[in-house]
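User: Sequence in, structure out. Go.
Assistant: Echoing your sequence, followed by the structure tokens.
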Amino acid sequence: MISGKQRTFGDVRPVALVTGSAKRVGRVIAQHLADCGYRIAVHANTSMDEAHCFAKSLKEQGTEASAFQADLTSEASIRDMVDKVHFYFGRIDVLVNSASIFFPTPLDELKTHDVESLFQVNTFSVLLCSRFVAQRMQEQATGGAIVNIADWSVVRPAKGFSAYIASKGVLVTLTRSLAIDLAAENPAIRVNAVLPGQVLLPEGSSDAKRQAAIDATLVKRMGEPEDIAQAVHFLVESPFVTGVCLPVDGGRTVFGGQFADASVH
């Protein structure tokens, strides 16, 4: 795998736009790419104070960075953000669609507004961000890489989250479709996805809940946001990989919860 610190276009460092990167997993992804030599466009909507602080921190580390605001439920706002990022940096080489919302959606409590909110942010914004960024990538001989952040639960859904899981499940098909469509415009544009396992537990989670999450993996540990960042970097830096949806879940999607004994028939 090529180190991000070696990836330059002449004297120009590549640029990564990471949505939802003011905090949580998106911030870790952005930090990892910065450490690998990327210039960073930090995105936030309502968390702009955190976004500006993070961009300032990156600058202090020697990374060119700036914060950009966009409401991902608005097509006009997304287009404006992409235009501003491109104007500021002069190019966009990587898009990581990390922004997401998450809440339970039990069927007997499900409201139309809940479904619309989940799909607007988790699904439609990914398509729109990818579409507008890809228009810029098409102009570049070097193309670019798009990485969508889906969810391991699209393979093994959990009870009570049907709308959320559906909004993330679409990303699997969307990733493959975008890989085909965008390669037809510029073969140097690649689209992949990461399907994270549980890397952040809700605040106040009990020790029992944490242990249950660990027991559900093959590797017998909790995932970390850095695990997701490393997978994103791999997909960004692998020029022969596209249309792939990569589970990063400690084996959770293939593990049934107990080890089978091949000697028992």
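User: And one key feature?
Assistant: Residues 180 and 243 are 8 Å apart (CA to CA).
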